[in-house]
């Protein structure tokens, strides 16, 4: 994490809690002030996304003292060191032994409660760097913007805009810590990037070099952003969803001015009040002036009608906990999202505004945005990989022509490991790719599995496992080189993988494969390419191609 971001968070924490962290839980081992502050920083960076700021659990387990103290110091250290089969990575190649020891102690103490962050704080931290009237009226560069990749440089707090035609870094911009996603404007001109520290940046690609034209700090932790895309409303609004405080905020799409803030605290599908139901993912409908907003801990999906922001209308759909990432089916009518700790995929019919199905899957589905293709037997399917199981689940998505397969897991493809984060294909490709970066075994984390789509009905056909990390030609390091996040280029004939060392002091890379031959094409290496993770091709992101 950048020093400035860390300082901001803990200054805010101290102000909210009288310059002191939460009192230790009864029977909890003690930490020095310095060790506790360092552990709190690590927790925010590495753990809060799965376990929650208040440690109540979601994708990851509940880490409140009543649970962690039962495990004890020694067992907690082993779990942190070696990871678990449920999808938690090993930290022995990321943290030192002392840091692991202190983290095991820290999570036995009472969770620190962050301050609130409302409209007043947002407006005080909103800045338009370049007014709309002063921005270019035409593209001032010769870059093929449709084939640019907005690439997260996780631990440097930056985004690299990489020219997909030349494989060169076109520009690097300072953003928030660990940008979670990049989303494009309906026009394809702007890139919206949201960091896990709640900083949202609007990047204009019409300048000679990519330029941040507006910034907003939407909260202390965030994951999701999108724009209005329905015809007649293109980019009029943007929406950002926060993990802390749990809320979503509607913004002016061209300036990021905060217009309306809506809390997501409330009653879960189980009928219990929850104080930290975080906004997990957001997609923008093309058939209505609506956003689909998923609320993780509550298990609620909200269809937010932005046609009248002053008199905002929500359709609330009860589904299942704990909602995470998801994407559209091929028709863009149905939204499929993982309720990963419930081992389900939720299907929402956005045309009818209601739940279409709850699909049972193997443990902890984690699709990213999923992958759509036509199966030789089952017709159109959407697929997800899993954090907690070594399979790729295929779900039928055509209730009209293939009703016998609709909203069912019609097949499970064997992956080379669990701990998978992303599965990906392209309409022009015959390949389906899956990673497994959270596997503790080195060879598995470095590899991907690729399936021939036209052979999926053939019982004799076997998938191919490819060690992508070895293709990068990086020096040997103590850490595992985790291969993560397949992304296609604009034409659909290349697939890009990040080789993520997990440590900003060690070199990382992006490996490009020829999608048809599955052979190495090139590697992108640069000292400025610090811990690359997500890569978002502008064309594919703009048009929801996956």
Automatic annotation (TrEMBL):
Q: Which UniProt keywords apply?
A: Heme, Iron, Metal-binding, Signal
Q: Does the keyword Chloroplast apply?
A: no
Q: Key word Zinc present in the record?
A: no
Report the Gene3D superfamilies cross-referenced here. Answer: C-terminal (heme d1) domain of cytochrome cd1-nitrite reductase, Cytochrome c-like domain
Residue stretches making up the Cytochrome c domain: 34-111
The signal peptide, as residue positions, is 1-22
Q: Which SUPFAM superfamilies match?
A: C-terminal (heme d1) domain of cytochrome cd1-nitrite reductase (SSF51004), Cytochrome c (SSF46626)
Cited Pfam families: Cytochrom_D1, Cytochrome_CBB3
CDD domains from the UniProt entry: 8prop_hemeD1_NirS
Under InterPro entries, the record lists:
Cyt_c-like_dom (IPR009056), Cyt_c-like_dom_sf (IPR036909), Cyt_cd1_C_sf (IPR003143), Haem_d1_sf (IPR011048)
What name is this protein filed under?
Dissimilatory nitrite reductase (NO-forming) cytochrome cd1 type apoprotein
Please report the organism this UniProt entry assigns to the protein: Azospira oryzae
Classification from the root reads: Bacteria, Pseudomonadati, Pseudomonadota, Betaproteobacteria, Rhodocyclales
